[in-house]
Design a protein that fits this description.
Blueprint: H1 3-13, E1 27-32, H2 39-49, E2 53-58, E3 65-71, E4 74-80, H3 94-107, E5 111-117, H4 124-135, E6 139-145, H5 156-167, E7 176-178, H6 187-201, H7 207-220, E8 225-226, E9 229-230, E10 233-240, E11 245-250, H8 258-272, E12 280-285
Parallel strand pairs: 1-4, 1-5, 5-6, 6-7, 11-12
Antiparallel strand pairs: 2-3, 3-4, 8-9, 10-11
Helix pairs in contact: 3-4, 7-8
Length: 287
């Protein structure tokens, strides 16, 4: 048995990191963003398009409602925390309260859908809410809502996409969907993207293929020197999914430069198309 096969066997025996009350394969997503960007309208548009809503049931977060629906034999949960009560003066401002609600929804979701108002400029508050989802290693989709009221030409969508790239550089893996929740335009594209991103978020790469990709990357561009010694990658394995998490066994885990890790991440992304999901890397010293 090879090292790669052995590592795959060991990883398969590790306990699951979080139990899901809805069972395997149920896609849980939340809509996050500032007040008045159209989150409720988008939620209603999503649910209104689907005629197979199962139920509204209490979630594990107090006063939240989880709406379960099915589309093309796939079950989804929209996590909505609109019912959470404000507690005390610290949450009195709409800004702080919207962040609190987003935080609680994000922690229970697989995918965070960041909703922006396409008729307005991107703000620091948008970035803060998105940043919390990124810090929690959630899969991400960016929705530009109210696109129907934006005055546009053939360059407008490209220009707005550039604005998103500049403002959300930490979400360069997130796909962008332009839609109108009010007019129910392009809602199906968002649901298709949720399916695609969830598949990527859950993807497991066989150890032998992962190592082939990384060793090819090292041949093209070797790790940098540190104190005259070159950092060496012995092998790698994928430890878990949601998000895909990779362990790299190296001779010096403390001095691998982040730019080289980014290079390796890009090689993995270019090969396996991990659109919408963050990738996590853990460095361990090879004994």
């Amino acid at each position: 048995i090879g090292v790669g096969d052995l590592l795959d066997k060991v990883v398969s025996l590790l306990p699951e990191k979080r139990k899901d009350p809805y069972g395997e394969g149920v896609i849980k997503f939340c809509l996050i963003g500032q007040p008045n960007v159209g989150k409720s309208t988008l939620s209603n548009a999503i649910l209104g398009e689907e005629r197979t809503i199962v139920s509204d049931i209490p979630g594990t977060t107090r006063d939240s409602i989880d709406t379960v629906f099915t589309r093309n034999q796939q079950k989804y949960v929209v996590i909505d925390t609109a019912g959470i009560r404000k507690l005390g003066k610290i949450y009195e401002s709409a800004e702080k309260y919207s962040v609190l609600r987003a935080m609680q929804a994000i922690e229970r979701s697989d995918i965070a859908v960041l909703v922006l108002d396409g008729s307005k400029e991107i703000t620091e508050q948008d970035k803060r809410i998105a940043g919390y989802a990124r810090e929690n290693n959630r899969a991400m989709i960016i929705v530009v809502n109210k696109w129907d009221i934006v005055q546009k030409d053939d360059k407008t969508m490209k220009e707005y996409t550039e604005k998103i790239k500049n403002n959300f550089q930490f979400l360069d893996f997130a796909p962008v969907i332009f839609l109108s929740a009010l007019n129910k335009q392009r809602i199906h594209l968002l649901l298709d993207e949720i399916d695609n991103v969830y598949e990527n978020f859950s993807r497991k790469i066989p150890t032998n293929i992962l190592n082939d990709i990384l060793m090819d990357a090292i041949l093209i561009n070797q790790p940098p020197l540190f104190n005259g010694n070159r950092i060496k990658l012995s092998y790698a394995t994928q430890e878990s999914t949601m998000p895909p998490s990779f362990v790299l066994f190296v001779n010096d885990e403390k001095h691998m430069h982040f730019s080289y890790l980014r290079y390796l991440e890009n090689q993995i992304r270019n090969t396996f198309h991990f659109e919408g999901t963050p990738l996590k890397f853990i460095l361990r010293k090879k004994e």
